[in-house]
Amino acid sequence: MDSTPSPISPRTPNEIICDVLYCLEREDTAQCQMVCQEWNNLIVSLKNLLPTRYFNVLWFLKEEIRLYRASFGDLPEFRLYVNGTNVDNWTNNRVNVNQKYQNRSAQEVIQYLKDAEYGNIDINYMDTKGLLKILKDVSTITEGPIKAKRSNCQAQRLDDFL
Amino acid sequence: MATESANGVSSPELNERDVVITTNDNRNFTVKIGVARVSKTINNMIQDLGESLDLSSGIPLPNVDGPIFEKVLEWCEEHKNAPEIKVEQDPHTRERKWFTMTEWEEEYFRKFLSHLWDLAMAANYLEIPSLYYYTCQKLAERIKGRTPEQIREMFGIEDDLTEEEKAEIRRTNVWCTY
Question: Are residues A24 and A90 both part of a single domain?
């Protein structure tokens, strides 16, 4: 019985590599980008077709931002403590709950929100001034719109609140 | 399956007949038509040839070699009466939903682990959706959770990315732990 991994043939059509990539999560295709130029170019060109990262809920609540991958019932991906009334330096705060983010600043963790799809954006309990500052900082750090299928407000994009 | 015929014989009877298939290394395989038809490519050839199909002179397969075709035939024999597979994707993440494989299929891929890319290429050319998509899934399974170095080593790929290109990839995937 063969037990060694399969070497790839240089004549393997891109179509096959694409069909392999479609089976992977975005985190895995990101690893594949670092394999070689050909794979990287392929993944970049397929950006809008390949699997994306998906988070069910991005929740802004009093003094805290939470990100849930699947549902409210699960452990959040992260909880980021924010002082709603003093938000000048909130991006230097540390992150709680998930070991993956320990010792990272809010600024670093917010970058994690880039390049993903969201089911819901929920905004609750923050004072308006603090909220606007935080949303503005998030939009700046992520360098683009964060949009969700649903939200508990009128807008579906974070920058629509600004 | 349509009741098309070749040599004036109806489909169920035709399926029991033998046809010779010749691979690119000039190996001849005598195969039941019902098994060969799992490949849409071969099925189309049989349909196109119709009355003029000469079962003994052989259908040429210029893009597949004998050792791989042997493995493909094992799959076709097992799947000759299997329904068409349905490819689905997660509506949120666009990730393709993974198929649940039978014990026979798992064993098949364990046996031919070192030929996954060749099997995918053959299944793609021969248009055998079940073998093609299942093989792609098996390749994805090998990649999942591995680092770029491990993937390169596994598939014999050379690292030809420059440091600048790597820095750009890191910049665009800042959420990824490289």
Answer: no
